[in-house]
Amino acid sequence: MSVETTSIEDLGRELGDAIAETSEYRAFEEAKAAVENDAEAQETISEFEQLRQEFMLARQTGQATQEGLQKVQRAQQELHALPVMAEYLEAQEELQSRLEGVNEAISEPLAVDFGGEAGGCCHD
After folding, report:
1. Number of separate domains in the chain
2. How many CB atoms lie within 10 A of CB 36?
3. Distance (Å, rounded) from C-alpha 98 to C-alpha 14?
4. Is 122 part of a structural domain of the chain?
5. Domain presence at residue 4
């Protein structure tokens, strides 16, 4: 392995460590743990996931209804209305925004969208 590759990989690890130390990442991890440890949130997530899976199966078999879609949407709204879940979603959005800034900083000198296209092939 070349020295350049090792250096770039080391920089990648340093970047990962630096991201893990940001306030956005720490807030996200705390919010995630809070959701994972909240019985009401876990029950509501399970109910939502079950409804969503049932609706997806109904769509695949051509039996989906508008009523079924509305039921899934109401369940999602109830889930997102839980304070612990609202905090999680806000923390997730803030972390995502920060990571988009990191992506832009990496992509700028490369003239590609590092996070979106660096692994792809021929894009027009």
Report:
1. 1
2. 12
3. 16
4. no
5. no
Determine the distance from the C-alpha atom of residue 66 to the mean position of all C-alpha atoms in its chain, rounded to a whole number.
Answer: 27
- pLDDT tens column, 28-43: 999 999 999 999 999 9
What is the average pLDDT across 49-63?
A: 96
Residue 71 corresponds to which tokens in the numbers above?
């039921």
Report the Cα 70 to chain-centroid distance in Å: 24
What is the reported pLDDT for 119?
52
Alpha carbon dihedral 101, 103, 106, 111, in 10-degree steps, equals: -110
Look at residue 111 and give its three-state secondary structure.
coil
Inter-residue contact 40 to 82 (CB < 8 Å): yes
CA distances from 5 to 8, 69, 103, 111, 114 (A): 5, 49, 20, 20, 17
